[in-house]
Structures are given as C-alpha cells and as structure tokens.
Amino acid sequence: MATKFTFAAGGAFLVNVLSAGLAAGGAWAVFSRIGTIVGFAEALSRNLGPVTGNHLLIALSMVAGSVIQMLLVAAWRSFLREGDMLFLGIGLMMSLLSATMSATTTNFFTNEAMISRNLHAEATGPAVDALRNGSDAMRDAADAAQTLASQASTLNNTEDNFGGTCTDVTTDPGDGPRRRLRERHKAAFSDLSQRLNAISNAMYEYALDIMSADEAETEVLYRKALGLTRSSDVKAIATRLAELREDVTTTFFDAQNNKRYSCQTPDFAARIANVEAMLTNGLKMEIQDVRTPEAGVGHGFLLLKDDVLNWITGERPDLPTAGRVTLLLTLIVEFLQVTMLVADFRQRRRSGRETDRWDRFHATYNKLTAVEAQRYEQILTALDRLTLRSEGRLWLVHGEGALSGAARQTIDHFDLDSDRAFSSGKTRTVPLARLVPEWVDARRDVLEGDSFTLYCLPRGIDHWRRRARRDVQHYRSRSPRRGNTQAYTASSATAAE
Questions:
Q1: How many CA atoms lie within 13 A of 351 on its CB side?
Q2: Range of 389's domain?
Q3: If residue 225 lies in a helix (H) or strand (E), which one and from where to where?
Q4: Which residue has the higher pLDDT, 279 or 415?
Q5: For residue 214, which of 119, 132, 133 has the smallest C-alpha distance?
Q6: Starting from the edge strand earliest in sequence, which strands make up the sheet with 387-390, in order?
Q7: What string of DSSP letters covers 443-487?
Q8: pTM score of the predicted model
C-alpha cells in the first residue's frame, strides 16, 4: 500500500510540474513578448546570469502556473472529501485552464513555422493580390495589343488591294503612305504585346518571390515590384500607345515622302485607347505594409481556437490537426493528474488519514435488502473476529467453529477460493502452531481444529468494511423491527479494522 501511495503522490507531483511548467513557460513568453523558440532559449540563457528585470516575469509566470496547480489540487481534493459541486466546478475550470495554457504553449512551439507562414501570408496578402491583379491586367493588355497587330495586318492588306481604310479620305489601292502606316502599326503593336507580356511575367514572379521570402527580402522585393510599375519601360509603352493613337485620330508622318498625312480610323483608335486604360488602371497600386509581425504564443492560442471550433462545426475539416492533438494531449495530462489525485485520496482513505467525519460525499448509503443486510452482518463479524495481518496484507482464517458459516459467506462474497487465488499464493493451509498463540487464545470460542486455511483479502477490504458497516447500520435504523443488531453493533464498535 505504501508503494502505491508513493507512486500516486509522486506521479501527481510530476504531472503538476509538467503542467505548471508548460503553462508558466507560455505565460513568460507572452509577458516577455518572446516570439520564437530560439528567442525563448536565448532569453532563458541570458537570464541565467546576473539578475535582470526579466527575472520578475519568470518568477511571476512560475507563480501563476503553480497557483493554478495549487487551486486545481485543492479543489479536486475538497470535492473528493466533501462532494461539494462548487469544488467540482472550480476543479474542472482549473483543469481546463491549465490544459488550455499548456496546449497553447505546446501548439505554438510545435507549429511556429506554420504560424509564421500564416502571419507572413496575411501581411503580404494585399500586396501579392495587387501584383497578381496587375500581372493579369498586363496580360490582358498584351492580348489586346496582339489583337491590334492582327487588325493592323488586315487593314494593311485591305489598303494594298482595295484602298479606302481611312474614314476621312478616299485612297487608291497600292503602296502608299497609308499602307505603310498600317504596316508600321502591325510591327509596333506586336512589339508592345511582347513588352507587356514581359512586365506581366515579372510582376507574377515578384508575387511568388514575396510569398516565399523572409521579412528582410520581402521589403526589398516589394520595392522592386513597385519600381517596375513606375519604370521607364512602362512610361515608354504609354508614350508609344499615345503616339499610335494620334496617328489614326489626327495626322501621321511618312518618312519616305517626308510629309504628314491624315488617316482617321475611329474604331481602331478606340481599341488603342482601351489598351492605354488597361495599362494605367492595371498599374495603379496602393503602397502596402508588408512587414510580418513576429509570431507569439498568443497566435498559438488563436490557431488552437480556430482549429477546435472548425473541427466542432465541421466547416474546414482539412485544417491541420496540431491544435486538436496538442489539446488532447494536455487534457490527457490533466486527466492523469486528476486520476492520480483520486488514487492518492483513495489510499489516504484506506490508510485512515482521511476520516469519515469529513466524508460527506462518500456517506451516501446503499439501500440493502433484508437478505443483503444479514449477509453483510455475517461478513462483518467474520472480518472483525477471524482476520489477522501478515506480510502487509489482511488474511481471513477459516476453520471449524461457530463462525465457519460467516467465514464461508466472506469467501464466497469476495471469491477468495478461485483457481487464480490458489495459483498466486493468496490461499494457503497452515497448522495451528503457525498461528500467533495470543490471537488463537482470544478466539477459542469461535475457532476450532488443528489446521486452518488462510485467504488473502482484497486490498480495498478496509474501505468495503467501512461502507458495509455504515449501510447495515442505516438499514437497521430504518427498520428496527427486522432484527436485533445490538450484539453486532456493540462488537463492531470495539473491533479493530
């Protein structure tokens, strides 16, 4: 019994230390604004030297974790002793609080990389989205420019074979300044399409690089991406589009004749203006703050909360299970802690250190029938008169005599003569000479013979005897006419457990 008590008490102590350490470590990291495992280790190593202000935070966090464990232990012990539901509520609350703090700390330390990635994605998300939208706009502008190149090629063939591609003048077919204008436009829009595609690809690459870059690289890449939208190449493209639109709205210069001509084409000019608008609107970007906040233990709690809530509601079952696993593990730790506290309390009750007068919770009587009450009386009488302690265990001595029937009731009730009991040495036959003479002399009135059988009683027999005596007395107090228990009551009051 002493070994089990030591194990229960020692196990509860170790679990308390583990739970308090996890909770206190998380509290210290929160108060100290320590965001990384490396920072946690470095801060711990720094504070092993001369006393600094951070030692106060360490002490306060350890006190907080220890206080939680003290309240937890006190509440559960009070509940087990008195059965007050208030203590049960406090104990459950403290257990959940300790488990949540431990799970938050563990969840952060085991998922710091994922939390940092999520924070980085949230911080850079607007900038990345703007770059991707700008890339899509440049690709659309490139496609529109390529369409204009195809239309210019069609107008070139029409002007060469039929003439009349301008709305303000009538031209004859063949090689002339207006056919050469269409040919130049074909080459110009084809070149602009390639340049716009290059800008689109560059913006998309910057978006990908920002997503995977660290904090220092992110700011550099973002500045380069913003610089691209304001580069000389973009300005040159805008200038060239304006010149090409002017060719088909006012006049254009023909280098071969060194002369200006008119060839207004409103529909073609409108398409050029549309490309200009796509270029201008696609590169309008508000400057975003892409600095990533440092991951902290508080983010571990948010991840834990979202994970558990989404798992309960089933909204996003594809989330990582880290939060649920860490919470489950810490709840298992708390369950082990409470289990060991219960085991320790039971050992204290069995050893007599927890008295019945405080045991209101365990004082609930079992309702016995008349047959059960009579059988319990016989078993209790046998346990009071026919038991002896040896090798740290309580043994029932069975032999001939007045109480042989009561001994047999005890053997049958606890199944003491099973094959397992014989094979494990819990049942043995001893001669009269092996028994203590004083013990035998005190029981000459109920014990006869020269050989006796010893049955090893269960370890919880003291607890069972205490409960059975209480149940029998309660039964007789409610039904005083069902039997006379004065002899039993008197003997049980003076008998040693």
A1: 14
A2: 365-494
A3: helix 215-229
A4: 279
A5: 119
A6: 387-390, 393-400, 448-456, 427-431
A7: TTTT-EEEEEEEEEPPTTHHHHHHHHHHHHHHHHHH-GGG---HH
A8: 0.51
